[in-house]
Specification:
- Keywords: Repeat.
- It comes from Microcaecilia unicolor.
- Pfam families: WD40_RLD (PF25390).
- This is RCC1 and BTB domain-containing protein 2 isoform X2.
- InterPro entries: RCC1-like_dom, RCC1/BLIP-II, Reg_chr_condens, Signaling_Regulatory_Domain.
- The protein has two domains: 350 residues, Methylamine Dehydrogenase, Chain H, CATH 2.130.10.30; 42 residues, no CATH class.
- It is globular and about 50 Å long.
- The relative contact order is 0.09.
- With 395 residues, the protein is mainly β.
- The two termini are 38 Å apart.
- The protein has a five-stranded antiparallel β-sheet. A four-stranded antiparallel β-sheet has the order 5-6-7-8, with no helix packed on it.
């Protein structure tokens, strides 16, 4: 079981409170804010409450866990934060809630007023089911169950993908090259955005001063553009750091590009890279990649279960993948990153406690791992060829 006590903020909680945690998300410029969910689906927050990012209705710091009534009973599937900070969460029902800093419209409610309480984001999302969220410094992006991408907020470098640099006050679908594409994975750097389609294509837009768009130049883009250098490989997932990008292919190969002043690309040097380059980790297949826009650190888990990290590690630069003593990528950000935040919503229940049937159910219709899809009633169902073959042989 993952020990949330590895993150300093949880020192404010009692042992009993820590034991009740089922999901947790630590965020903020200093890692001093946390949102967590208990076993009975109650949502609590704790921390410095910068810009009202804890959603309690005020900006007072909280040293004892306080219940977030609006979200209690609503199961959370995904959380992300921006620098303000602002928070965007997605529930299992596909609802989108946001709160916190809003000077650049990053809450998607049509105003620039601070969001001191969680508010349901409805514009253009009423009949949509959100499945993933990604936040940049002051912009937000969600992925829906039908493979569409919606974005809003700060847009000085075109990171919203609207075709202009005007801030976007409410969610609008990112179209252009993505108009007829089915997107399966999204990520945001500080001022950039990335999307992966079910065909394994990678599209990028926004700021590229450090080469983080992977197009071989430093030109900003106001609409999505395909990364042609990845032609011939099928990408399954993307994650972004502050100004660097990592993608994982269906063959377990890791490609990286962007800023590299701390060695966060893992290429053995500190030179920025404007084209995707492969990073081989101990000649193993990579199963998971991790990064978040608030840090200059990267992590990966290999097929044998080993976890590697590289980049800015407690003030030091690690320029090649370094084998760690931890067992999950989440712990990399607790032990080595500054600040000690979380790169994703951490679910405490480990996979090794699941039965075989539960594990298979968890992966059913997962576009990130599937290698085949069927169109049924105008909706795609994602499946695995090997499981279909096993089922066929059992008939």
């Amino acid at each position: 079981m993952v020990d949330v006590g590895k993150w300093p903020i949880f020192a404010l909680c009692s042992e009993e409170e820590r034991k009740s945690v089922r999901q947790a998300y630590i965020f903020g410029s200093s890692g001093n804010e946390v949102l967590y969910v208990t076993e009975n689906d109650e949502v609590f927050v704790l921390g410095t409450n910068c810009s009202g990012c804890l959603g309690t209705g005020d900006i007072q710091s909280i040293i004892e866990p306080r219940r977030l009534e609006t979200l209690c009973g609503k199961q959370l599937t995904c959380v992300s934060f921006g620098n303000g900070p602002h928070i965007v969460v997605i529930t299992t029902e596909g609802e989108v809630y946001s709160w916190g800093h809003n000077a650049y419209c990053q809450l998607g409610n049509g105003t620039t007023n601070p969001g001191l309480l969680p508010c349901l984001v409805t514009t253009n999302l009423v009949n949509k089911q959100a499945t993933a969220v990604a936040c940049g410094s002051h912009h937000s992006m969600v992925l829906t169950s039908d493979g569409e991408v919606y974005s809003w907020g700060y847009n000085n470098s075109g990171q919203v993908g609207s075709g202009s640099t005007a801030n976007q006050p409410v969610p609008r679908r990112v179209t252009s090259c993505l108009n007829k594409k089915y997107v399966i994975s999204i990520a945001c750097g500080q001022l950039s955005s990335t999307a992966v389609t079910d065909k394994g294509e990678v599209y990028v837009w926004g700021y590229s001063g450090n080469g983080q768009l992977g197009l071989g130049n430093s030109c900003n883009l106001q609409t999505p553009c395909k990364v042609m250098a990845l032609q011939g490989v099928r990408v399954l997932r993307v994650v972004c750091g502050n100004a660097h990008t990592l993608v994982l292919t269906d063959e377990g190969v890791l490609y990286v590009w962007g800023a590299n002043s701390y060695g966060q690309l893992g290429t053995g040097n500190k030179s920025n890279q404007s084209y995707p380059v492969p990073v081989i980790i101990n000649k193993e297949r990579v199963m998971e990649i991790a990064a978040c826009h608030s840090a200059h650190i990267s992590a990966a888990k290999t097929q044998s279960g080993q976890v590697y990290m590289w980049g800015q590690c407690r003030g030091q630069s690690v320029v090649l993948p370094h084998l760690t003593h931890v067992t999950c990528t989440d712990d990399v950000f607790a032990c080595f990153a500054s600040p000690a935040v979380m790169w994703r919503l951490l679910s405490i229940e480990p996979d090794d406690h699941l039965t075989v049937s539960q594990s298979l159910k968890k992966e059913f219709d997962n576009p990130e791992t599937a290698d085949l899809k069927f169109l049924v009633d105008e909706k795609y169902i994602h499946v695995h060829k090997v499981l279909l073959r096993i089922r066929f042989l059992c008939l």
